[in-house]
């Protein structure tokens, strides 16, 4: 896995061109948005492109973390037949750019003033050698915990805000006959849970030093990392035996249906609650993962554009890029997806309290230094380091390793990947 290119999507903001010539064309788009809320979001983009005269060929590869999709993408690109656009994010955009595969869409970006419409933390990731090669669709907050309030009431438990309290309340849920923590036993989900523990236990300074490029091995090889693994290891007892291989949205449905009390997952989980007709505050509650209320772990979904051999495909590509950053698309897509707009200036009116909390946390964390990129979702480190983290974390969580053994394995794996 160390050598695997883990590529996901990025999100940001941009302005739709005031004048876009509608010309027939086609885009083939690789993505892994196949769950209910995700599919609704993708379908809206298809409709927008259809209105602009561009047809969409869907290239969906299931798998919530995108590993399957990236394997297919590499095969297509190496064979000289890449799709028009692919869901790629973070440092992986730079890796694809360095390989010479990505198209320059800087003309669209300049015409629509993307530099002023996107926060710099977003726009910087969308560029390769100073030129835009990708368009952001959203900003996800990853450090969310989703809870079923009825389950908590029945168990006489309260929603925890610290990891110590999490252990207490989770045991109450278990004693009442519920699964305390809904989780899917897949490597990317293990890493997502681990990431929340890293931030909640170690704080933003430790997180940025140990898990964001350039990784500080002295900080990673510290007592704090052992403490992180101690907390992470305690969570094993609250996950049910059927967890291995479970998709993330199936875990979300366990909370929706009242089988489980909590899930720690990014705000794409909210899209599943919405599809199920559930309302925030009554049917589900969104709170920051324990110990992370003042922080915001961001994951930016984006589409990177691949070089095309004909003018019609390139024009369709440009239309797609412009549509992605329009205010209408940014609003509807993110309402469906559960995320927040990547571009600035989009009205908050239609967004719910969870989205408002995410928007506020993004701004506040940016000012306080607690805005951190998600290493579990390809935003913080190279694909090699990301793979090393995935391997170490999932091996620990699915074994009886001690916290010290888990920390030692992580340090060794990351060291060899740097």
Major beta sheet summary: 5 strands, mixed
Rg calc? 21 Å
N-to-C span: 14 Å
- Arrangement of strands in the largest sheet: 2-1-3-13-6
Assign an overall shape.
globular
Q: Which band does the percent of strand residues land in?
A: 5-15%
Helical content class: 40-55%
- Count every beta strand, where a strand is a DSSP E run of 2 or more residues: 14
Low-confidence stretches: 1-23
Assign the structural class, choosing from mainly alpha, mainly beta, alpha/beta, alpha+beta, or little secondary structure: alpha/beta
Mean pLDDT, to the nearest integer, reads 91
How many helices? The count is: 18
Overview features:
single chain; 418 residues; alpha/beta; five-stranded mixed β-sheet; four-stranded mixed β-sheet; 47% helix; 13% strand; globular; disordered N terminus
What does this structure look like?
- 47% of the residues lie in helices and 13% in strands.
- The protein has helices at residues 36-51, 67-78, 91-98, 106-111, 114-117, 120-123, 149-155, 163-175, 187-211, 217-220, 223-234, 248-256, 269-275, 311-324, 327-337, 353-368, 383-397, 403-417; strands spanning 25-31, 54-60, 85-87, 127-128, 131-132, 134-136, 140-141, 144-147, 179-181, 260-264, 285-288, 296-299, 302-305, 371-373.
- Strand 1 (25-31), helix 1 (36-51) and strand 2 form a beta-alpha-beta unit.
- The protein is globular, with a radius of gyration of 21 Å.
- The protein contains 18 helices and 14 strands.
- 56% of the residues are buried.
- Mean pLDDT is 91; it is low at 1-23.
- Helix 1 (36-51) packs antiparallel against helix 15 (327-337) and helix 9 packs across helix 17 (383-397).
- The chain starts with 24 loop residues before the first strand and ends with a helix.
- The protein has a five-stranded mixed beta sheet with strand order 2-1-3-13-6. A four-stranded mixed beta sheet has the order 9-10-8-11.
- It is an alpha/beta fold and 418 residues long.
